[in-house]
Design brief:
Blueprint lengths: L7 E4 L2 H14 L12 H8 L13 E5 L2 E7 L6 E6 L7 H11 L2 E2 L6 E8 L6 H6 L3 E2 L5 E7 L14 E4 L6 H11 L10 H11 L10 E4 L5 E10 L4 E9 L8 H16 L3 E4 L4 H6 L2 E12 L2
Parallel strand pairs: 4-6, 12-13
Antiparallel strand pairs: 1-2, 2-3, 3-4, 5-6, 6-14, 7-14, 8-13, 8-14, 9-10, 10-11, 11-12
Helix pairs in contact: 1-2, 5-6
Length: 306
């Protein structure tokens, strides 16, 4: 246990702090996410997602003590969200962190123009719940962020695929146009897939992240050579866990077990590297059918400011 030191608040500086926050999340991770913080791959995926509002990164707040990071309050992709990361000895900073979020991380509804904040509070953080309630926040169950886990078997069972389909990875077959197409169509953006250098570069950045590995980005290839299901996968080497993000299947090829095969192959590859558990930020029945079970929820508490 650390002796609590006086804390210093300052804004996040990306060039200086990106790796330091990654190290902070890794250092304080506990099995089964008992620490309550983000898994480090979520932080990494956030920073290389094409929808990230990079212009607001300086509004993320950092608290330091003795030259070390002890707390972070951040959004994920855009303003209007607040997530809270703690050193275990500095949870008393909850109120100061909420103050910071209300000052800096509020969003504005495109529909109503009202300013709002969605504060995501771990379901077992019973000391934080009365703080947000006392300020007029209301819980919105439909916006809960779940975390599920999958215990990786050893040996790993065979992964079935329909005849004519096969598995590959971006280490063996890297075609950003096919990656972009399956993700675009798989996330139901329509059949008119925009193909230009900017779109393809944004996909490359999503997956060629600092700790990313192309051999863990798995695609299912159809008989016509197209990628028709895709699973991104991260392997956190310090604590030996896998993290699933993102997963998509072309609508034409759904209900054939292709998305399941891509996810299981990514998990299998992480297991071969030493992972013993995989996590996903979803409670979709798709993941339950694979064998994922609930770990915890980040509950969404919403407040409007005008």
């Amino acid at each position: 246990m650390w002796t609590q030191l006086n804390t210093h608040f300052r804004p996040y500086e990306h060039a200086r702090d990106y790796q330091r926050v990654s190290g902070f999340l890794i250092a304080h991770h506990r099995p089964n996410n008992a620490d309550g913080n983000w898994l480090e791959p979520i932080w990494e995926y956030m920073h290389f997602h094409p929808w990230l509002d990079t212009s607001s990164l300086g509004k993320i707040g950092i608290w330091e003590a003795g030259g070390e990071i002890v707390a972070v309050v951040n959004y994920e992709l855009r303003l209007g969200e607040a997530f809270f990361q703690f050193h275990p000895d500095y949870r008393h900073l909850r109120t100061a962190m909420l103050d910071c979020a209300e000052r800096n991380l509020r969003g504005r509804s495109q529909k109503t123009g009202r300013r709002y904040l969605c504060a995501f509070i771990r379901d077992d953080d019973r000391e934080f719940h009365p703080v947000v309630q006392s300020r007029g926040y209301e819980k919105h169950d439909d916006k809960t962020r779940p975390l599920d886990r999958f215990d990786i078997p050893d040996p790993f069972p065979p992964i079935p695929l329909p005849e004519g389909f096969h598995l590959t990875s971006l280490a063996d077959d890297c075609d950003w146009a096919r990656v972009h197409s399956v993700l675009w169509r798989g996330f139901d953006h329509g059949d008119d897939v925009p193909m230009n250098d900017e779109e393809l570069e944004s996909r490359r950045r999503m997956f060629d992240t600092p700790r990313g590995r192309r051999d863990l980005k798995v695609a299912v290839v159809a008989p016509n050579g197209e990628f028709v299901a895709f699973c991104g996968m991260f392997y956190e080497t310090h604590h030996r866990f896998a993290y699933v993000e993102p997963v998509a299947t072309d609508p034409v090829y759904r209900r054939m077990g292709l998305g399941k095969a891509a996810v299981l192959e990514g998990i299998r590859r992480c297991g071969a590297l030493g992972a013993r558990v995989a996590y996903v930020g979803s409670d979709d029945q798709f993941y339950r059918s694979i064998g994922f079970t609930r770990v915890c929820d980040d509950e969404c508490w919403v407040k409007y400011f005008d």
